[in-house]
Amino acid sequence: MQDHIRLDQLLKLEGLVQTGGHAKMLIQSGDVRVDGQVETRRGRKLFGGETVEVDGRKVVVTAEEG
Asked: Which domains does the chain have, with CATH numbers?
């Protein structure tokens, strides 16, 4: 059971990017913020409660209960 999601996976899952390559490009260029801070690690683990911002769109990460 996975208790986290990677940042690049979240962007794709939420429809904020079309491809993994696009996610990688946005993250590495500093266009993605997690909790208001620029995040450049595409493998950043998100566990729930974080707010991710891309191009003026915000997604709040929710923890999945098992």
From this structure: 5-60 (3.10.290.10)
